Every structure is written in structure tokens, then in C-alpha cells.
Amino acid sequence: MAFDGIVVANLVHELREQLLNGRITKIAQPETDELLLTIKGPGGQRRLYMSASAALPLVFLTDTNKPSPMTAPNFCMLLRKHIANGRIVDIYQPKLERIIHFTVEHLDEMGDLCRKDLIIEIMGKHSNLIFCNDEGIVIDSIKHVSAQMSSVREVLPGRQYFIPDPMDKLDPLSVESEAFYLALCAKPMPLSKAIYTSFTGISPVTAEEICALAGVDSSLPPKELSEDVLRHLYNQFMIYFSGVKEGLFLPSIYYDGDEPKEFSSLPLTHFSEYTIKTFDSISEVLETYYAAKNTLTRIRQKSADLRRVIQTALERNCKKYDLQQKQLKDTEGREKFKVYGELIHAYGYNLEDGAKKLEALNYYTGEMISIPLDPAKTPQENAQKYFEKYNKQKRTFEALSRLIEETKEEIKYLESVRTALDIARSEDDLAEIKEELAAAGYIRRKFTKKKVKIKNKPLHYISSDGFHIYVGKNNIQNDELTFRFASGNDWWFHAKQAPGSHVIVKTNGEQLPDAAFEEAGRLAAYYSSMRGSEKVEIDYVEKKHVKKPSGAKPGFVVYYTNYSMVIDSNISQIQEAD
């Protein structure tokens, strides 16, 4: 979700509670676009992290310290000179802008009491940290913005600070009904877009939530709505933002399985398919959400080389499979050559020398056929030529059939590894997949040929009835789960004809309830290449019926008797064990 004005309002509410009247005891600049302030407030010492990064601008309270450079940057030295030991006397947000002002009271060189403003603007690539005097004149900023860089506003020492033009956007906290109707109806676009482009501090997700609360189709143009519907929409809009005015925030993260999808300071009821986790602090939400996002991003970046290996091998095998299929098609007419040879033997005794064809009755079909002959050869030699052609194509067919089956298995295996990369959560997961690929000969081990020992565990869930469910994260874990960990009467689940995880439900000799079957089926659907589908066919069977063919690749099994179910891949209600 965007770091919108509502989240900023929640932050300001929290920062006022924690930092107001606190004294700044330490100022650090860990990165070129970051500040870390240590503040001793009424509730003890806190750290305030502020980032004006173009990729990820953030503000939140944290307990984590960051190492600082040996030589402090100029902006950091300037802040230390002016506001070190200063007291934060005000923290506010202008309207619902993504801007926070920290007003700091301090003593100047003459011992006189004066005030300065430290302003953070959270505006994507235009984010900045700006330091101003009490008259709004910029003393300095963490990023200098000249007229050549921006035609809207310069941010340079000596310039007057002002908020960039919000493009005629209205303040959602004070908008009147008439202005609300006019703003929306003036825009020929879907209702949700009209909302977030007409009011400050509103993200697309918030606009969708307002439409959902009002029960209005967000894709409809505002002009198509009746006066009653617009009035109802305005009422819901004001009710929603009354939570902001009154500080009734509910900091939350919305998870799709184990992946954080959105965060919010107010409830998002239209995200009913996600699991919601609430927090006491919006700072904790931001730190948790972006830490998890950064972990997933880092894992995807680190898996890039492995993905290239898999993709290259997949493309090569798919091309090989297509070529083998074409070659196999060329052998489809092999049986007719055998029939030609037999018919020449049966009817060729009365052929004249130099005959170019034989008209004969095909006793297999009862039809007359014409068999081309080489006039330079005897009937016996023509028959032999057709038998040789038949035998050659028969050998080709048999060899290609084996090769095609091997290529299909290779493609299935590579697809299963690609799915394992999608499931990977940690560097240990990637290391295990890398070891698997090294054992299969796709990549070389560095420095040693010894197998690397990796301590990595499968995913562990607990069903609503208390049964323990385990999910393999890669082919090595799938084999370990199915053939070493599971007992004969445990239940085994897998997405039908799709690469994915082996899922084991430990029964401990008990009868499984229907809910446990459904939850295990959902996990098998989610941890497969069919993730996100509403209908996934799942095979399930007692583990004792699952076999591994001799010489089969990791993760490959066979079973001949099984049950099936069709289920969705929503695991939001399934509890993951610690």
C-alpha cells in the first residue's frame, strides 16, 4: 500500500504521544538520505528513523540502531550544531499531506531561545528532509533541488519553504458535500480514481475501501451515480475519515499466506481474502512490513542466477521436446512399410521385370492398394527395402518414445524447481535448491565436491482441529517428508499434474476430520504452480500408497489409487506454527 496521508496521520498521532517534549540527544546520518534521531522523551529513550530515499521513503520509531560513517555528512553536522539537545515542542501534519513537521526549540549561540523546523516530505522520488528557520526559510536540505531539476519548487538554502501545489486537490477532513459532488462529477474516470485524484492523502486502496463501504461499483464514472448514491457515498467518506480526526487508528498488515500484501492504519474490509494482523503501533507495522518485503525482495534477487539456470534449461528441453515430437510424427507411417513388404512377398511372384508398381489386395483392410516399386530391383529386394525401412522407423519410434518420456520428466523436474524458488523464504531454502541443482548436474559446486549439509525445515501448519501439517519447500524436502518423516497411515497431498509441494498430515492413528482434509488441500494448492487459482484439483492418498520409482529424480513419486478434491488456494485462515 502507498504511504498515504492516513498512515502519516497515524504516525503523527503516535509520534506526538511518544516524542512530544522529548529532547534530541543524538543525531546520526547512516546513509546519504537517512537520519536517525535518538530522543529522550517522557516514556524513555526512542529512536526515530527517517528516510528520504527515492525508492523507499519512510518514517517510524525503532529500537534498531544503525552504524554511522566515520565522518558525519554536512547535513548531519548542521543539525547537530542547531538542534542537538533541542526539545521537540510540536509535531504536525499540514492537512492530510504526506508531510511531517517537527518543531524543535533550542538555544542559539547567544543563549537565546529559538525554534527551527525539521520537515520530512514523503513523496516518492521527490522525498526530502528539509531544515528551516522559524520564518520558513530553508537553512539546508538532505537533497538540494535546483530550478534545472524542478520547475515546481527549488529546495536550496535561503529559499522560502512552501508545500508544492496539490493540483487542486481538496482536504478530505474538511470538504463540504457540494464541493465533494462537484470534484467527483467533474472527472470522466472510474469512481475510485476520481476519489484519489480529487483529495489529498488518499491512496487507490483507500479509495476502493470507501467505494466498498458505500456499496458502490468503483469502476462506474461518478456522473452515472444518482444524487442519493452520491449523498450516501459522501456520508461513508466522512464516517471513514472521522476515524482519522478522532485518532481511532487500527494499524494492520494484510497477509496472503506468509507474504505481506498491504498495510493500513484503518480497516480495509474489501481485503476479506487476506489474513489480517493488528499491531499496537504504526511504527511496528512499517518496520515489520518493509522488513518482510525487503527479505522477499532480497531472496528474489539472490535467486536470479538460479532462475536463469532453470529458465535456460527449460527452454532447451522444450525445444528438444518439440523437435522429438516432430521426429516421432515422421514415424507414424511405419506400419504401412511392413504391409508393403508382406504384400510384395505374397503377390510379387507374377510381377514382370522392371515393374514400377504392384496393384494388390490389402488383406488387412480388404482394399486394393498401389505399392511403388524400384524397377531396378527384384520383388524380393523391394520387399526387403520396405522391411528395412519399417525396422528403421520402428527403432526410431521406440528410441524417441523413451527420449520424449525422459524429456517430459526433465521439464516436469525443472518446473518443480522453479516452483520451489517461488516458495523459498530464506537463504537456506536457496542453498538447498542450489545443492539439488548441483547434484543434478545443472550447476557446479565451488571448491569442493562434497555435499553441503544444510539445516532447513519444512513449513509447519496446524489445522483448525489441531492436526500437524507439513509442507516441503523443495524436492529434497519433499522426499524427506514423504519417505522418511511420514508414517504409512499419514495422509499425502499434492496438486494434480502440477509442480508443487508434498503436503503431509500427521494422523497419529486418528481419523482425520473433513476440515483437516480441506486445509491440507488448500496448502497443496497454494504451494504449487496453481497458487492464486480459485479451483485446483488435489490428489490425496495415504502415504503407504505413494512409491518412488528406482532412479527417479528428487520429488518424483507414483501412486495408483487416490482420492481427489477441487479446492481454492486461500490459506489465510490456516495457522502457521512457530
Secondary structure topology:
Layout: H1 5-19, E1 23-28, E2 34-41, E3 44-51, E4 58-62, H2 74-83, E5 87-92, E6 99-107, E7 113-121, E8 128-133, E9 138-141, H3 177-185, H4 191-198, H5 204-214, H6 227-245, E10 252-256, E11 259-264, E12 275-278, H7 282-302, H8 304-329, H9 334-347, E13 357-362, E14 367-372, H10 379-423, H11 427-439, E15 459-462, E16 468-471, H12 475-485, E17 491-495, E18 503-505, H13 514-526, E19 536-542, E20 563-567, E21 575-576
Antiparallel strand pairs: 1-2, 2-3, 3-4, 5-6, 6-7, 7-8, 8-9, 10-11, 10-12, 13-14, 15-16, 15-21, 16-18, 17-18, 17-19, 19-20
Helix pairs in contact: 4-5, 5-6, 8-10, 9-10
Describe the structure in your own words.
With 578 residues, the chain is an alpha+beta fold. The protein has helices at 5-19, 74-83, 177-185, 191-198, 204-214, 227-245, 282-302, 304-329, 334-347, 379-423, 427-439, 475-485, 514-526; strands spanning 23-28, 34-41, 44-51, 58-62, 87-92, 99-107, 113-121, 128-133, 138-141, 252-256, 259-264, 275-278, 357-362, 367-372, 459-462, 468-471, 491-495, 503-505, 536-542, 563-567, 575-576. The strands form five sheets. The chain has a seven-stranded antiparallel sheet with strand order 20-19-17-18-16-15-21, sandwiched between helices. Helix 5 packs across helix 6 (227-245), helix 8 runs antiparallel to helix 10 and helix 9 packs antiparallel against helix 10. The radius of gyration is 35 Å and the shape is elongated. The relative contact order is 0.06. The mean pLDDT is 90.
